[in-house]
Each structure stands twice: as structure tokens, then as C-alpha cells.
Amino acid sequence: MAAGRGAAALRRAWRERRAALLEPRYTPLVAACLCLAEGGVNLWVIRRVPYTEIDWKAYMQEVEGFANGTLDYTQLKGDTGPLVYPAGFVYIFLGLYYATGRGSDIRLAQYLFAGLYLLNLLLVFRIYCRTNKVPPYVFFFMCCASYRIHSIFVLRLFNDPVAMAILFLAINLFLEEHWSWGCLLFSLAVSVKMNILLFAPGLLFLLLQRFGLLGCIPKLCICALLQVVLGLPFLLVNPVGYLTRSFDLGRQFQFKWTVNWRFLPEEVFQNRVFHAALLLAHLAGLGLFALHRWHSSKENILALLKDPGKRKPTSPRLTVNNILWQASCVCLLNASAWIVFILFSSNFLGVCCSRSLHYQFYVWYFHTLPYLLWCTPTTKLAHMPKVLLLGVIELCWNTYPSTVCSSLSLHICHGLILLQLWYGTAPTPVSHISPPSRKPTAMSKKAQ
Predict the structure, then answer these.
(1) Is there a contact between 131 and 340 (Cβ–Cβ < 8 Å)?
(2) How many angstroms separate the CA atoms of 79 and 57, rounded?
(3) What is the dihedral of CA 342, 353, 358, 82, to 10 degrees?
(4) 233-257, pLDDT tens digit by residue?
(5) Strand 81-82 with 77-78, pairing
(6) Fewest CB within a 10 Å sphere: which of 8, 87, 170, 255?
(7) What is the DSSP string of 396-442?
């Protein structure tokens, strides 16, 4: 029965093949086809492309120290240096350590990461299905066309994809109004790698918008409590050592690995004043987006601290223009799309202002790029430049070692995306437009 329905859907899609490439309603069908294709692509890559050892051996050495009873975080180290990730990384990669024969079965580890790749892809596609913004043909570029992403997952076995997969699971929970569970998974992702904190400003804004200050505090406590529980064995032995190693925000990066700042002299790249300037630019960008793109109410942004039930409703006069404007806002940016826009743009601002981007960091924002480019209104003529931007970004990340030209090109692409996000997004969330009637009790249970 299910096979018959699938065959009928394929026949209908073939008859409407142009629409299947351009209409977001066909995203589930295109996603299913691409996931099947990606299974084959990953198998081919694992069997035909040589594995490259970079960090896997060091990961196994670091967690082996914990397996042998070492709880002083400053004593956990591998060939590439000391352990610099939070405790969640240790537990997850300890499981991989035992599953792969103490890290010796590389081929099995590659298959496990191929499974992680497909799981990550399914979670990403589910987000895109909910937002209904991106034309399906774009997903061909997000999947089979990226050599670097396949390499990060199945040829390098970095921890970045693990953190991002957990993060995308958390976002799916946010979209389902399971905010407490989402915060728990978000914190777990942070405990694997700190880059997830780039999503934190957007998440904090959403929590304040959804629950107000008092309602937001329990969600933040969930995030903090999980960090304490995961780090407790290490905190009891050497709390300062654990905190300074796993949450070291001032760590210096090596100039030879930078993808985004190759055009700078190395002394500038390592200069603390330059780092402070990037931090200020990041904070300024977050402030501008929070004030003028994320926050749409005519009330002061401090109104987010109030209980949502006590905020002033924004109801413009019922003129024909206002009715048409509100209807277009509902179509332009639905509730799910608004959540995703805030989280993805928060992360993208952090990526743009990063002190350094290494090659594996591409996965931090790769799967969000189609949304960032196509969440704004797109004319027929604008599709090609956006696809071109994706291609240039991919080319920049595939240039090894990075060059002055590739680094400058990457910044230009990032700048163009920021400009189209700023000028192309409608700063009006659907929460300020009266939604269809829903049972309040069911909503409150899911949101808790």
C-alpha cells in the first residue's frame, strides 16, 4: 500500500518535474531521493577515497585517559595537544572508543559517521520541510555537491558533525514547542563543542519572546544543570582545570589553518586588539539584528522581559492595506520559519566574526546557507546569483591551503548574505498576528 502511494507520488512528480524542483511543497519527496543517493555516495567515498588521520587518534587518546581513571582534565591529552572540549565530548567519544575496538577499527568508525551524516541530513530536511521556504533544487547543492562536508564526516571523523547533529535535533524540538527538551539537547550539543554557543543569543531571544524573563529562567537552568552534571566527575577533582580547558574562550588559533583571515599578516591575526574588534563587531551585529530584525513589536525591546500575557498586543488599524500586509507576513515568514531565521542568523553572525575558521568548521553553517539565502523573497533572476554564492563559498572552503583570494572571496560572500538578510527579511513574526484557535492546555503542556 505504502509502495503504491510512493510510486504514485513519483509519477505525479515526474509529470510536474519543473514544479518538483521549484516548489517547496515537494521538499519531502526530493529529500527522500537525496537521502537514498547520499547513502550510496557515502559508501563510495568510504571505500574509494583514502582516510586521512587528523584528530581521530588524538580523540581516542584523550578519552582513553578517562577510561583509565584520569579525572584531572589537565592530564587528558593526545598527540595534537591537551583536551579542549567539554565533558559531553568525552562520554560520546568514549562510546565510539569502545565500539571501534579502542579506536583501532577506522572503517567501522567511518560507517558510524556515515550514519551520523544521514541522520543529520534527515534532521536538516525536517527543518526545511517545516519552514517551507527553499526550492527543492537547491538541496542538490547541499547534498551531493559538497566534497568538503563529506570529507569532514566520513574521511576526517571530527567532533563538529556530532555537535551539529545534536543541535539540529534540538531545533526540531523547538519547532514542535518542546522547549525544555530542546534546551536539554542544546546544552548537550554545547558539551560536545562550544561553537554551538553561537546559536545561544538567538535562543535566548526566542525564550524571552516565548516565556518572558521569569518563564525563561527554568529553561536556562536546564542548560546549566546539564553542564554541571556532565562535568561533575571532573569538577570534583580539579574544577579550575576543567573550566579553563573545556571552556577556553581565549585559545589562540594557528595561522596556517585559517580559512577566513589568510589575507592578514600573522601578527595582526594573533593580535588581541584584533580579537577584541571582532568581538565588538559580533556584539554590534547581534544588537542590530535583535533590535531591528528579530524584534518586530512597536514596544521597547525590554518588553520581552515581561510575561507574554501582559505585553501590549500590536494591532494596526483595520484598513485594506493592513489586512493585505498581515496576510503577506503570514505567508512570508511562518512561525517555524521565524524560529529558524533567528537561530540561523545568530549563528551566521558569529561565523562572520570568528577569530579563525578551520576547514572542519564549515559544517557549523553549511546546512543553514540555503535557508539564509532563500528565506528572503527571491525573484526568478535572483536564483542564479544565490546558487553562484553557494558555489563560491564551496570553492573557498575547498581551496587548500587557503589563499588571499579565497579568504577575501569568503568574506565578500558572507557580506552579501548579511546584506540580503538585512534588507530582505520582514521584521514581523507571526506571533503578533492572531493565530488560529488552538487548545491552550495542549500548547502549555508541549511548551513546558
Answers:
(1) yes
(2) 8
(3) -100
(4) 999 999 999 999 999 887 888 899 9
(5) antiparallel
(6) 8
(7) HHH-SS--HHHHHHHHHHHHHHHHHHHHH-----GGGSPPPP--HHH
